[in-house]
Specification:
Distance between the termini: 34 Å
Largest sheet: 4 strands, mixed
Number of helices: 10
Strand content: 5-15%
Helix content: 55-70%
Structural class: alpha/beta
Number of domains: 2
Order of helices and strands: HHHHHHHHHHEEEEEEEEE
Radius of gyration: 24 Å
Shape: elongated
Oligomer: single chain
């Protein structure tokens, strides 16, 4: 599952000022037009609120559509991992474009067609009461680089609900800065653009690495942050699965995974090497990507809605060791211990 708190914080700390460089002038223009036809303070506040609410609604709907579109690419575990990895690469390219590392990376920051940009700017100068709301809706056509990275993440989620929540969290995070600085966005953008654009780029790289780590897990790779950390820890300390093996006494060919709201719980994680395993999946209270239990190394991916149960069978690896399982995005994790 995406780290929504990290996404919100990216919008709050960096996304707002970064996007002001693209959309701040439009907001300032429509605020000025509203102030010209009414009480300056009241009209300005109403204009900003209409702009932000419409923008939040528009991007939430866009996120749902992007997540829905992304679901069509999840034809297999390999495709899912490839798509999520491609999203991470695009996000890194976007970040390097924001950092102006090389002219090549500017191609990752997509520009809307000129006629759309002209139409949005023309609408910004309209003094109608609902002009700010219409402009807020139309900002989907002029997203900043950080917003584009979040849009890619929404596609990679492959889920309309998570896609909507990704864009909602990000745009909600940008809203306080838009509200506070909305009236002086044009003046501030030249002062803060370079500094906050760099911070935004680093934040996007962190999210990209999070996504890439999930893609590696879905691909069944051992090269994940968790595995590398465990290997490093076990190099300087002592760790094995003997305690687990002792606690459950023997390896089984039938076990149950319970899906809770915060993760997976296995009745007996010790399974018999080389045997056909019957796995019962009981979704007690898990919502979202955690509903889809995935075992990459044996090609299992089973979606179980909340309150339902399902049974799958697979052949356990013949060699003793660990058999990781996870949610459909590689975020919630668990593991079986394969033993003789």
């Amino acid at each position: 599952m995406p780290n929504f708190w990290l996404i919100f914080t990216t919008g709050l700390i960096t996304g707002g000022l970064s996007c002001l460089a693209v959309q701040g002038g439009l907001l300032a223009t429509t605020v000025a037009e509203r102030q010209a036809v009414g009480n300056a303070k009241k009209s300005g506040t109403v204009a900003v609120l209409l702009f932000l609410l419409a923008k939040l609604a528009a991007y939430t709907v866009l996120g749902a559509l992007l997540g829905w579109a992304g679901s069509f690419f999840q034809l297999s575990l390999a495709t899912r991992a490839l798509l999520q990895g491609a999203v991470a690469v695009f996000m890194v390219g976007t970040a390097l474009g924001l950092l102006d590392v090389h002219p090549f990376f500017r191609y990752f920051i997509l520009q809307p067609p000129r006629f759309l940009t002209k139409m949005v700017r023309t609408r910004a100068k309209n003094a109608d009461f609902f002009a700010p709301a219409v402009l807020g809706l139309m900002t989907v056509f002029v997203p900043c680089g950080v917003t584009q990275a979040m849009m890619a993440l929404a596609i990679g989620s492959g889920n309309p609900f998570f896609g909507a929540l990704i864009m909602f969290s990000f745009v909600l995070g940008t809203s306080p800065l838009f509200f506070i600085f909305g009236f002086v966005a044009t003046a501030l953008k030249n002062v803060f653009q370079e500094k906050f654009q760099k911070i935004a780029a680093y934040a996007v790289i962190v999210i990209a690495l999070w996504s890439l780590n999930g893609a590696a897990a879905l691909a069944g790779s051992d090269w994940t942050i968790e595995n590398l950390w465990e290997k490093l820890y076990c190099t300087v300390s002592y760790c094995d699965d003997s305690a687990v093996l002792t606690a459950y006494a023997r390896a089984v060919t039938e076990t149950t995974v319970n899906i809770n709201s915060d993760g997976y719980q296995v009745d007996n994680p010790v399974i018999l090497a080389g045997a056909e395993i019957t796995l019962h999946i009981n979704n007690k209270e898990g919502r979202g990507c955690i509903e889809s239990l995935t075992i990459p190394k044996v090609g299992i991916s089973k979606s179980v809605p909340i309150g339902e149960t399902a049974t799958v069978k697979f052949k356990a690896p013949s060699e003793p060791g660990e058999l990781p399982f996870m949610c459909s995005m590689g975020m919630y994790r668990g593991k079986f211990i394969v033993a003789n």
